[in-house]
Write a structure and sequence with these properties.
The complex is a heterodimer of chains A (about 400) and B (about 350). With about 400 residues, chain A is α+β, with helices and mostly antiparallel strands. Chain A is built from 14 helices and 17 strands. Chain A has helices at about 5-20, 50-55, 60-65, 85-90, 115-135, 165-175, 180-185, 210-230, 230-240, 245-260, 260-265, 275-290, 295-300, 375-385, and strands at about 35, 45-50, 70-75, 75, 90-95, 95-100, 140-145, 150-155, 185-190, 200-205, 305, 320-325, 345-350, 355-360, 360-365, 370-375, 385-390. In chain A, a hairpin with a 4-residue loop joins strand 7 and strand 8. Chain A is globular. Chain B folds into 2 domains: about 5-220, Transcription Elongation Factor S-II, Chain A (Up-down Bundle), CATH 1.20.930; about 230-355, no CATH class. In chain B, strands 1-2-4-3 form a 4-stranded antiparallel sheet. Chain B is globular and about 70 Å long. Chain B starts with a helix and ends in an 8-residue tail after the last helix. Classes of the chains: A alpha+beta (about 400), B mainly alpha (about 350). The interface between A and B is medium-sized, with 32 and 24 residues. Chain B: Belongs to the eukaryotic-type primase large subunit family.
């Protein structure tokens, strides 16, 4: 990045911060703060181990220092500005989740557009929120667009803030479906002889109460409903697409599902050996379909620094934006986070790495060379290193 | 000081009883050898066999030996000692309270005061986090993770639990195990602390004794640990083949045998292990293992290095750690170092020792 580009971006970030209102996180003075200034050279050096006392009032600090990136710690400390973690005196940490398009298995890097990646990321976000709200029962969630390629969720529930790394890893494994064991999800109980001749001595059930077993149960019922709605021949074909299910087993499983539907609804999967085998296969499907592929280290690291909501992302010029829970569905990551400051006027940039840019509801195919573009597009390109500021 | 205090010395009310009796620890360690001896026994048994030994018949001695044992653990100030001690105290309390939970309902009117579940939950601030669910309990997920995160076994993993609206279902037996963990945390809390010189000076003999016990322990542990899950992939694969009764080439048989000898298995144990394989006649195996060990030959053979394993085609399923080491034994040592010592279940102890884990 050329000096003139850096100076321009720094100046415009400053203009933005002088008008913007930034709400700090709760207990801001117990947290460590860090920022990356607009410095020369390819390496970015983070200034960290600062307390709010060192920085001053946050909005004032942002307007004065015009940093490229700003972070605060998930952790709360006795001495947030101490230079080592052991001297800081850890008290507790927010539970933070990071969904990054780069880490999503469904994203094809180099093929999916920025917009497609972000759309897949939002799907994952909704799955994550389902876990956090339904399974974990958290009601104090802060959802944030990261300003780059994904979303952050901050949980500040008092009952989990004290959790240490190992316990947080259990939460990661839960939302990612790691370590899920079919045999552990299934409850086995001995059934008395009166249950009928054909009934097995063991009755295996999926708990419908909650957790992955309830998810597996819902998925299984949905598949069964689909099968029962099909023509018999189609249903049998469909069943035989599963590994290890031949015509005989398909027929047996389908018949068992039809004649024991109420049992299945109640969670009993032991209606027939062939059906039991099918249920096992379906469980693996549910993990792939329902899990939220969060970035593990962010959640397990109790000292992690996280981007400050309300600040600008120095690699895109987009706002790191809090999203109200009810606005998530409608949220458009390529429109809503475009800062007002950069809207409504054009600037000239020298494009070095052209191509498609979709932003603020418009799309631009840019070629290398001098181009006049809306400022938010110019800022986006310069921040990403795809353009330099045009010479005046 | 009541018998209940002595049975559960970590309870707040037990500590209060000690405080109310205005006992001066400095004086105790200087004058009361019975208490100091019992305190030493608590810690020494914890290190050597994971128990706190037999309780002293006098309530006062038994109760006071607990704070003195904590002083000893603090003076020794070695991580493994603190951990084993807390574990042993928790096990002892667990045995007692599970028994008392079962008898409380029927024998309520008996002479001795017992501890019930409600009181124990309240002791650890779990009263609001745990609720009765009829055929078991619901535990708030934060409290559950505190107490279950380092339990062994897939069934404790949160992912395998019905979790709904922030609560985890557990059985009564599982709740007891969680309470045991809460006790372990309580005992560990604040250890080690700073001990005034006046008290430390009275306990030098006891501390020397514990250090001696610990050093013996480290010598034996260094190599004598058999945890197949931590074996390098090559040895896992060979062992697997042995146990499936598949025929192994000589070099493969040699590799697995030297490895097992190297980690401290006796010839008898290896013969037992190999017996399922028809390819291993007992005498031949015994001879080969003794030979490797150096008993019947002038040389003590050691496990082949990775390069040798590779050239014989015995190097399979390489993982990340394999990239970083050059010898199967190095892999195993690294894995042992990386694993919490309590997590290690020695193969030879695992059989018939299931109830310890219930």
């Amino acid at each position: 990045m050329e000096e003139r580009t850096r100076a321009y971006l720094r100046g415009r970030f400053g203009d933005h911060y002088r008008q913007a209102s930034v709400t700090p996180p709760p207990a801001a003075n117990e947290r460590e703060w860090g920022f990356i200034p607009w410095t020369e050279g390819p390496g970015e050096t983070m200034v960290r181990h600062r307390s709010l006392l060192d920085l001053g009032e946050i909005e004032d600090f942002l307007g004065r220092r015009k940093p490229r990136h700003v972070y605060f710690s998930a952790g709360r400390y006795d001495e947030p500005s101490a230079s080592t973690m052991s001297d800081k005196g850890w008290r507790s940490s927010d539970l933070v989740f990071d969904l990054d398009a780069d880490h999503l298995p469904s994203v094809v890097l180099g093929e999916d557009s920025y917009a497609e990646m972000l759309a897949k990321c939002k799907d994952a976000l909704l799955r994550l929120l389902d876990f956090l709200e339904e399974d974990f029962g958290f009601d104090d969630l802060t959802v944030v667009f990261s300003g780059g390629r994904g979303y952050h969720v901050h949980v500040r529930d008092e009952r989990i803030r004290h959790l240490e790394r190992d316990a947080r890893r259990e939460i990661v494994d839960y939302v990612r479906g790691i370590g899920l064991e079919f045999d552990e999800l299934v409850d086995e109980e001995s059934v008395a002889g009166t249950a009928g001749r054909s009934s097995p001595a063991q009755k295996r059930t999926l708990s419908t109460e909650g957790g992955w077993s309830a998810r597996a149960h819902r998925h299984m019922l949905a598949v069964v409903d689909d099968l029962l709605a099909m023509e018999e021949a189609d249903a049998l074909d469909r069943l035989q697409e599963y590994d290890g299910i031949g015509e005989g087993k398909a027929t047996a499983a389908l018949n068992a599902a039809r004649s024991n539907y109420e049992q299945l609804e109640a969670g009993n999967i032991d209606v027939h050996p062939a059906f039991y085998q099918l249920a096992k296969i379906l469980l693996h499907e549910v993990v792939a379909a329902d899990n939220a592929p969060i970035d593990e280290p962010v959640t397990t690291d109790t000292n992690r620094l996280i981007r400050l909501p309300g600040s600008l992302h120095g690699g895109s010029g987009l706002e790191v934006q809090r999203i109200d829970r009810e606005d998530i569905d409608a949220f458009d990551p390529l429109v809503d986070p475009v800062p007002e400051t950069f809207r409504g006027h054009d600037i000239t940039v020298e494009v070095t790495d052209g191509g498609l840019v979709e932003l603020d509801g418009d799309s631009f195919t840019l070629e290398a060379g001098n181009q006049t573009v809306p400022e938010h597009v110019g800022v986006f390109l310069m921040a990403r290193g795809r353009a330099e500021k045009g010479k005046e | 000081m009541e018998p209940l205090h002595a049975r559960y010395p970590f309870l707040a009310r037990s500590r209060e009883a000690v405080e109310a009796a205005a006992v001066d620890l400095g004086e105790i360690v200087a004058t009361d050898e019975t208490v100091t001896a019992r305190a030493l026994e608590r810690v020494e048994s914890a290190i050597t066999d994971g128990t706190v030994g037999e309780p002293h018949r006098r309530t006062r001695v038994e109760l006071l030996s607990y704070p003195v044992a904590r002083v000893l653990v603090s003076l020794v100030d070695v991580h493994i000692c603190t951990r084993k001690y807390a574990q042993a105290e928790a096990e002892a309390a667990y045995d007692r309270f599970t028994e008392e939970f079962e008898t409380t309902t029927e024998l309520k009117s008996t002479q001795r005061e017992t501890l019930d579940r409600t009181e124990l939950l309240a002791e650890f601030d779990l009263a609001s986090a745990v609720s009765d669910a009829g055929d078991g309990y619901r535990v708030e997920v934060g409290a559950y993770l505190d107490l279950a995160a380092d339990q062994r076994g897939d069934s404790w993993r949160l992912v395998n639990r019905p979790l709904a609206d922030g609560e985890v279902r557990v059985t009564a037996e599982e709740l007891n195990v969680l309470l045991k963990q809460a006790i372990r945390h309580r005992v560990t809390d604040g250890l080690p602390f700073t001990v005034p010189d006046a008290i430390a000076d009275e306990l030098t003999e006891e501390v020397d004794r514990l250090e001696e016990v610990l050093s013996e322990l480290e010598l034996t542990r260094e190599i004598d640990t058999v945890v197949p899950e931590l074996f390098p992939p090559c040895m896992k694969s060979l062992l697997d083949q042995v146990q499936k009764g598949e025929h192994l080439e000589h070099h493969s048989r040699f590799a697995i045998a030297t490895f097992l000898v190297g980690i401290g298995m006796t010839t008898d144990e290896i013969v037992d292990l190999f017996q399922v394989n028809p390819g291993f006649g007992e005498e031949a195996t015994r001879y080969q293992v003794d030979h490797i060990r150096g008993d019947t030959s002038p040389t003590e053979y050691s496990t082949p290095a990775c390069s040798t394993m590779q050239s014989y085609g015995d190097c399979v399923n390489m993982d990340d750690l394999c990239e970083a080491i050059s010898h199967p034994m190095g892999y195993y040592e690294q894995k042992l170092d990386d694993t919490d010592e309590e997590e290690l279940v020695d193969w030879r102890e695992d059989e018939g020792d299931e109830e310890a884990d219930a």
